[in-house]
Write a structure and sequence with these properties.
Elements lengths: L1 H16 L8 E2 L6 E4 L3 E9 L2 E12 L2 E11 L12 E6 L4 E6 L4 E5 L12 E10 L1 H9 L2 E8 L2 E6 L2 H15 L2
Antiparallel strand pairs: 1-2, 2-4, 3-4, 4-5, 5-9, 6-7, 6-10, 7-9, 8-9, 10-11
């Protein structure tokens, strides 16, 4: 019986620890705007080589009355470098077959990642980009109400396409629900 209770409490704790939640809000000291955001939520993940993962994550954010969907793409050193410019688009295809288009609010922020970022070619090295996409309240309502099936990102090396697993789509949808409630 004690083993059963211990197992149940560990599972409940793990579920609580990894559940989606809002991060502590930040208040701008000049404008007074409050920034709400969640943890990054994976949209797509693929193990390509040992230590060389490809991942696409999204992080909803609300700054004052403006909403953003921050896109984070991590690619291994084996991938060609690219960038996302202001005005490039991201296309979300939903389970109801509708398509939502968001536009990059500014150029992406890029960083080199890996075990030794000063020497190209180290294990696990690659590139990580962060790009904010402006999202209207109507677009946010769509993200909240319908699961995502597919994502296409316009970049300097062409279109980057990602099939989204239903389990990951649910987590992303929950993150947008939390931001929408603020």
């Amino acid at each position: 019986m004690h083993e059963f209770l211990l197992t149940v409490s560990l599972l409940a704790g793990a579920n609580f620890a990894f559940s989606q939640k809002l991060l502590k809000p930040e208040v701008d000291k000049i404008s007074g705007d409050t920034t709400w955001k969640t943890n990054e939520q994976a949209l797509y993940a693929k193990l390509t080589l040992v230590g060389a993962n490809e991942m696409v994550a999204v992080q909803p954010e609300k700054v004052g009355n403006t909403y953003f969907a921050w896109l984070n793409i991590t690619q291994p050193k084996t991938a060609n470098y690219y960038y996302i410019l202001k005005g490039n688009k991201i296309f979300f295809k939903f389970s109801d077959k509708s398509i939502l288009t968001l536009e990059a609010a500014k150029e992406n922020l890029t960083e080199k990642v890996g075990s030794n970022t000063t020497t190209f070619g180290s294990v696990g090295e690659g590139m990580k980009t962060y790009t904010p996409f402006l999202i209207t309240k109507e677009q946010l309502d769509k993200m909240v109400s319908t699961p995502i099936e597919f994502v296409r990102v316009e970049s300097s090396k062409g279109e980057l396409d990602y099939d989204i697993k239903p389990k990951l789509a649910e987590k992303v949808q929950k993150a947008f629900q939390l931001i929408s409630a603020k």
